[in-house]
Amino acid sequence: MKGVYFKMKVKNPKFEISAVSPKQYPTNGLAEIVLVGKSNVGKSSFINTMINRKSLARTSSEPGKTRQINFYNIDDTFYFVDLPGYGYSKMSKQEQDKVGKFTEEYLVNRNTISCIIFLIDIRHKPTENDKLMYHYIMESNLPFIVLANKADKIAPTKISSYIDDLKLELGISFSIILPFSSEKKIFCDDVWKELDNYILQK
User: Fold this and answer.
1) What secondary structure does DSSP assign to 19-46, as a single string?
2) In what order do the strands lie in the sheet with 144-149?
3) Does pTM top 0.85 for this prediction?
4) What phi, psi does 44 have (nearest 5°)?
5) Contact 22, 107 (CB under 8 A)
6) Residue 152's domain is classified under what CATH number?
7) DSSP, residue by residue, 117-177
8) Number of domains, the chain
9) Distance between CA 145 and CA 150 in Å, rounded?
10) By residue range, what is the domain housing residue 73?
11) What is the pLDDT of residues 53-62, one digit of tens each?
């Protein structure tokens, strides 16, 4: 069945649960595509764009709104899982520690994670937190894709060079890095093609 999902239209996506502990996670064994990145990098907008919905995943101009693990059931085929963003300075230290603890617990112990999508802003140099997250993902040995988001903000002819710069900054030598834009809804097919390797496993 591989090689077909990205061509299909998502018919019945739904928000399933916001969770902060394993006892709240779904138990149906579906593959989970996990979104990580700094606050306000566009994880929720990515979900809405990929499934062609305006507001299934809540978006906000204020960073730090996602403080739980949000599971979005995509046609009972797989989940998009939106993790809390990092680098939001207005969150209290106590709250940062709490969120960091259950997020790491999920990433370390969840055995249905099929792929991690690491979103990064194509326009800016990676922050120290971005670099830490990239190396954390590398060490997890889980499959992952790096998405250079907000590609509509730069000239199409410069996308390739910006991606090369990100690779250099992060130390990427072999990992997949793809451009993306929720605003213009471009590059979606490229992402679906790649995710197809991790969705239809059954």
Assistant:
1) ESSGGGS--S--EEEEEE-BTTSSHHHH
2) 13-19, 69-74, 78-82, 31-36, 113-121, 144-149, 177-179
3) yes
4) -65, -40
5) no
6) 3.40.50.300
7) EEEEETTSPPPHHHHHHHHHHHHHT--EEEEEE-GGGS-GGGHHHHHHHHHHHHT-SSS-E
8) 1
9) 16
10) 5-199
11) 888 887 654 5
